[in-house]
Specification:
The chain is an alpha/beta fold and about 270 residues long. The protein has helices at about 1-25, 45-55, 65-75, 90-105, 130-160, 180-200, 220-230, 235-240, 240-245, 250-255; strands at about 35, 60-65, 80-85, 110-115, 160-165, 205-210. About 35% of the residues are buried. This is Dehydrogenase/reductase SDR family member 9-like isoform X2.
Length: about 270
Amino acid sequence: MLGTVLPVLLAILAYRLYKWARGLPRISSTADKYVLVTGCDTGFGKLHAQRLDKLGFHVFAACLTEKGQQDLKQLCSDRVVTMAMDVTSHDSILKARDVVRTHVGENGELWGLVNNAGVLGAVGHIEWQTREDFINTFNVNLFGMVDVTRTFLPLLKRARGRVVNASSVYGRTDPGSGAYGTSKFAVEGYSDCLRRMLGPLGVSVHILEPGTFLTGFQAPEVIDRLMHKSWDNLEPDVRSCRQSVQRGGLFRFHQLQPRGRRRSPLPPTA
């Protein structure tokens, strides 16, 4: 009986997978499509710009630093246009929009926007992170994303394009990153709202939720530097809770990191 039923079930499954694959959107040509990627100095943004270039897209690679721009120019073809953009500065975003318009035309289209720019922000126990730490992290990870999306939305609507927002697995469950995880929860909420409101206009909205990757974003030396910075700015009475912190959430969070990257979660005792 099983020998008769199993081939039938496999055939049905294969047919359904075939129909599903046939229904996926197809890109007819990449030669006439423009994509803007923010945060291209390093990490995912830099890799994404290179990948899109190899696929034949025209890429606007927004970098915070001049070095980031120069590095990409050496790695990519002339389809990649590098430009300066500080996502926390509205004037900087407007200047970047002017660059895009000179290439696509006043009535041109933007096929895709990848909001990748982000910062890790302050590191340490939640009590170590100040209001300013949260504001600085949100200014890049959320408010910068909102400003960039709103600024380029007219170009995206003309193309019935797509917005891809870089969130994080910490946007679903945060093991103790504080401001960073909170900002990514906000990114998820913003993306949900954006998706519902732009869907009827033909613009799709997507999120990426990467975990811990070796891009340098969470390199041990970066974590150590940020953690020491938070520790050095603490009031004496907050420092006195060090032992309870080491027994609590921060230590457990540190254990979640890949085995080869674990280091002392707290600065050495003075």
